[in-house]
Amino acid sequence: MVSVHSERRPVYLANPDITLVKILIAGGFGVGKTTLVGNASEIRPLRTEEPLTEAGTLVDDLAGLADKTHTTVGIDFGRVTIADDVALYLFGTPGQPRFRPLWDGLAHGAMGAIVLLDTRRPDDSYWAMDEIEDRGIPYIVAVNQFPESPPHDADQLRHALDLDRTTPLLVCNALDLRSCRALLESLMVHLIAHYRQDLTA
Amino acid sequence: MTAPGGRRRLVPAYLATGGQATPSRNTLDRMTVLTCEPGPRPTDLTAPARRVLDQLGPGALTLVEVAAYVQLPPSITRVIASDLVDRGLLRTHASLLQPNNTGATTREGPDDADAKKERIAVIERVLHGLRAL
Predict the structure, then answer these.
(1) Largest Cα–Cα distance in chain B?
(2) C-beta atoms surrounding A25 within 10 Å
(3) A13:B73 CB<8 A
(4) Which of A30, A70, A113, B97 could be A139's S-S partner, Cβ–Cβ 3.0 to 4.6 Å?
(5) b/e string for A117-143 if b means 16 or more Cβ within 10 A?
(6) Is this complex scored with an ipTM above 0.85?
(7) 3-class DSSP state of A74
(8) CA–CA distance from B39 to each of A184, B42, B58, B89, B94 (Å)?
């Protein structure tokens, strides 16, 4: 877990008219999303706390029920400045299905996604893959290799995940900086192919 | 996912906006870039609104970054920022590359071949930039 201090000096964007590219880091709870966001990001990753209810109902609920406990979910995100005029933003999606209501806002404008998978419990990431597929967001799948991960057969895993032939399935180590960067590169290669296909379609 | 221990908001979310629930404009989202407009600052601003302006200072940040720094949910920060835009204290920059041209914050024109090519060119720049890091 990356600690977030309450008082931090902002790291400003190079210029206000910079082009921003947004991608999602998705997957089940505890699969390594926060680690990946933290390692890939140049700024210390930031976190927002988001109420589960919509803004409108939030106010109404609290007005009527002073002692109402409302659920919040932490969203981690990071930034990689590519050049003075391009920056990449990575958003970790909530790991648990009950936080689904937040997905629409988070996924809005996402160019692509990395779905992280833990082969010890791959089922945990299925629903996140569905959320991404339902929105038509191009993605790659990356098995986050834990020391105690059982060896997996790539073909079997592709079959189990019902992956499209063109969707890359990779192995990574979210703890390793270079592995995280390589993953981002792989996503970009996939996105270029995806959007080129869109061009000729 | 829980917040690190001992951290709490300075102002409850529902007070931060003075009870206002929805932003006055719907063009703001997490990725909208915000900058302060030059000029004197009114004296009647709420504390959260002042914090938003203080965090931005002379620089540019996305709305979600401002939200993280001022420790308010993005939805609440959006209401505050929207009000500050209406008052001429903040400027917005629609900077987010869109996967298609249906988004309200897009900077592109119609989703024609040029827009698609531009999209690919940006991603290629990101790829080359990552390789150069």
Answers:
(1) 52
(2) 30
(3) no
(4) A113
(5) bbeeebebbbebbebbbebebbbbbbb
(6) yes
(7) strand
(8) 41, 9, 12, 8, 22
Structure tokens that stand for A154 in this block: 């790539």
Residue of B nearest to A108 (CA): B103
CA atoms within 13 A on the CB side of B80: 30
Distances (CA, A) of B64 to A106, A161, B72: 11, 33, 10
Residues B130, A74: C-beta atoms closer than 8 Å = no
Q: Count CB neighbours of A169 within 10 A.
A: 17
pTM: 0.85
Beta pairing partners, A93? none
- pLDDT value of residue B4: 44
Is there a contact between B125 and A49 (Cβ–Cβ < 8 Å)? no
Burial environment of residue A66 by CB neighbours within 10 A (0 to 12, 13 to 18, 19 or more): exposed
C-alpha span between B96 and B112 (Å, rounded): 17
- pLDDT for A5-37, tens place per residue? 445 789 999 999 999 999 999 999 899 999 999
CB atoms within 10 A of CB A73: 21
Q: Are B14 and B75 in contact (CB under 8 A)?
A: no
- R_g over Cα of chain B: 17
> Which chain A positions have a beta carbon within 8 Å of B57's beta carbon?
10
Which pair of tokens denotes residue A119? 């082969």
Interface check for A73 against chain B (CB to CB < 8 A): the answer is yes
